[in-house]
Amino acid sequence: MKRYLIFAAVMPFVGGFLLLFATTYASGYWTETNIAEIKKLFVVFAKTLQYAYLFGIVPGLMIGAIDDILFHVPRIRPVLRTLIVGAIGFVAAELLYGSRGSDSGVVQFVLYGLVGFVPTTLSSWLSHKYAEEQQPVVSA
User: Fold this and answer.
1) What separation in angstroms does the CA of 39 have from each of 7, 17, 23, 45?
2) Which of the two ends of the chain, N or C, has the fewest CB atoms closer than 10 A to its terminal CB?
3) What is the mean pLDDT of residues 7-13?
4) Per-residue pLDDT at 54 exceeds 80
5) Is pLDDT at 128 greater than 80 in this prediction?
6) Dist CA 51 CA 12 (whole Å)
7) Cα angle at 100 between 40 and 8, to 5 degrees?
8) How far apart are CA 65 and CA 99, in angstroms?
9) Neighbouring C-beta atoms of residue 1, cutoff 10 Å
10) Which residues contact 137 (CB under 8 A, 6 or more apart)?
């Protein structure tokens, strides 16, 4: 149960911020950066955080379910599980957000892919660190 709470809490927060950052970067917002524009980014993030959770909890729980399924496969170690879940998040975010706007290319592909990769790997690592029960050692 802790695993799902971690995914539901972390993924919308981090993914919402990264999506806002990727969208502003793709629109050319960061061409002339000063402290006022960075402050404005965080103000917009605070105002849109409720929508990040509204639209991000269900995908976060779905990725958490995939992580939970992979947790029960004994051959898959935590590092490999984290990378598999991260790759699934990368592909899902790229398919969902990658075709936005008229600009398409490698930068947009990577930016929108990282919107899915970073929160899923972070959530998977946190669930490995804090939500998994220690397995008993079986001697042969």
Assistant:
1) 27, 13, 16, 10
2) C
3) 95
4) yes
5) yes
6) 9
7) 65
8) 26
9) 7
10) none
Residue with tokens 């959770």: 53
Residue 24 one-letter amino acid: T
Which two three-digit tokens encode residue 86?
């991260």
Question: What is the tens place of the pLDDT at every residue in 94-112?
Answer: 888 777 666 667 888 888 8
Q: In what helix (H) or strand (E) does residue 140 lie, and over which residues does it extend?
A: none
- Cβ(99)–Cβ(138) under 8 Å? no
CB 87 within 8 A of CB 121: no
pTM: 0.85
Instruction: Tell me 102's DSSP state.
Output: S
CB–CB of 63/15 below 8 Å?
no
CA contacts within 13 A on the Cβ side of 93: 31
The token duo for 99 is 């075709």
